[in-house]
Amino acid sequence: MYDATSGPWMEPAMRRVLVVDGDPQSREHLLRFLRSLRVLATGFATAESALAWIENNGAPSLICVDMRLPVMSGFRFCAAVRKNSRACNVPLLAVSSRTEMQDEAQALEAGVDVFLEKPVAHGAFLVAARELLTARGPIPGVEALTATR
Q1: b/e sequence 28-53, b meaning 16+ C-beta within 10 Å
Q2: How far apart are CA 148 and CA 59, in angstroms?
Q3: Is 73 in contact with 117 (CB distance < 8 Å)?
Q4: In a domain, 80, yes or no
Q5: In this structure, what CATH number is given to the domain that contains residue 41?
Q6: Which pLDDT score is estimated for 148?
Q7: Structural domain for 100, as ranges
Q8: What share of the chain is helix, strand, coil (3-state, %, to 5)?
């Protein structure tokens, strides 16, 4: 079992995680979950504002995105991230209140790594976020996840 609050992967070299969700309550809910992992979590109401942040600041360690965003959908946002040379390897954790098979398939096609149904369970979200933060090999500022038994 993983301990969410300790271990060498929780070093001071903080990881930046972006949360892109048009619903302020849902966005704050996800930000609270992430802050319990002691990461630097920043929220965005639109895909466009998150893409602008990436262009100005570089790739974060993880992006959590709602698939039902205003203006640019989460699906289009994920496809744009995958085409962005600065962020193409950033893990994507998708959340959606619509969980039809076609939504999940479309999200995976757009490059999503993990798809979770809203309302998101705290434990499932934290496990997915921790695994994605360390799954793709060395990410600047992220150390290997260790299990405590």
Answers
A1: ebbbebbeebebebbbbbbbbebbeb
A2: 29
A3: no
A4: yes
A5: 3.40.50.2300
A6: 35
A7: 8-135
A8: 40, 15, 45
